[in-house]
Each structure stands twice: as C-alpha cells, then as structure tokens.
C-alpha cells in the first residue's frame, strides 16, 4: 500500500467557506476545500498555500492546524492536514492548468446551508466545523479513518 501526505486550507469569509467543485461526468461531482499533495521539500503549510493558489487563483496564508484527516482507497492511504487560512490576495478563478487537470470546474464561496445540502469534504464542513470554530481549535482534532468516496 502506498501513502500520500496532503494539506489544505479552510478559509472562511463573510460566513462562507472557500470551496472547489470537482466534476468528472459519470464518476463524481463534489465540493471540497482547496488542498492536495505535498511536493518535494514543501512544508505542510506551503503545500496548502500552493494548492489554494493553483485551485482558486487566490493567495492565502496558513494559520493553525485544525484537523488531521485519514482516508483510504484501494492501494492508497491518505493523511491530510487541514489548516485554518486567510486570503491575502488574488482573484477567484478555477482556470489554472492545475485546476483543470484535477477536473475542478468551479471555485466559490459557499454558505453553511449550501454545504449541508451538498456532497462536500471534509465531511465535518456539514456540521462539526461550525461548532469547532466557536471553540477556536485549541488543539488539532484527529478525524476518524474513512473510505474515500471518489478517486
């Protein structure tokens, strides 16, 4: 079994979260916070910031580590580190070659209600995230191991 480290940012603005929509007709259509695999000697935070830029056109800064997510698919085990982030510049777009290659069709700010009614990842964005943010993420939270729904 292979292992993959990845990182992402949970960025909130005006009570909405920055999300990207992955669509591969006939296989999947879901929303996820921006993030992806660590490359070379990047730190987890650097990887998360790069992924936001590639997937959304925005520049961002990683803050505190909020969640550690474990999931698997056949032959591959993932460990993803979710940081709380903030936008520092750029313009929202899903047109970068890296986004197109990953079947990202849209980048958008989604309100809590839209997340609750959609297929979105990490799953806690449909509920627990909103309570956790009130608590302030005193320590990173390890999420339960789950099977990856799409690959």
From TrEMBL:
Pfam family, one: NUDIX
Residues making up the signal peptide according to the UniProt record: none
UniProt entry keywords in alphabetical sequence: Hydrolase
Organism: Ideonella aquatica
Homology family: Belongs to the Nudix hydrolase family.
Alphabetical list of Gene3D superfamilies matching this protein: Nucleoside Triphosphate Pyrophosphohydrolase (3.90.79.10)
Protein name: NUDIX hydrolase
Cofactor(s) this protein cannot do without: Mg(2+)
InterPro entries hit by this protein: Nudix_hydrolase, NUDIX_hydrolase-like_dom_sf, NUDIX_hydrolase_CS, NUDIX_hydrolase_dom
A Gene Ontology molecular function term of the record: hydrolase activity
Domain Nudix hydrolase: 1-139
């Amino acid at each position: 079994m292979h292992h993959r480290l990845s990182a992402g940012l949970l960025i909130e603005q005006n009570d909405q979260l920055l999300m990207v929509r992955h669509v591969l007709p006939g296989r999947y259509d879901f929303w996820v916070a921006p993030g992806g695999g660590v490359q070379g000697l990047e730190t987890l935070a650097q990887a998360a910031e790069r992924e936001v830029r590639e997937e959304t056109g925005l520049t961002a800064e990683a803050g505190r580590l909020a969640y550690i997510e474990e999931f698997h698919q056949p032959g591959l085990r993932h460990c993803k580190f979710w940081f709380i982030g903030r936008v520092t510049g750029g313009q929202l777009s899903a047109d970068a070659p890296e986004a197109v290659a990953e079947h990202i069709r849209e980048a958008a700010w989604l309100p809590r209600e839209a997340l609750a009614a959609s297929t979105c990842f990490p799953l806690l964005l449909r509920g627990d995230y909103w309570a956790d943010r009130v608590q302030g993420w005193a320590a990173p939270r390890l999420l339960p191991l789950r099977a990856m729904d799409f690959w």
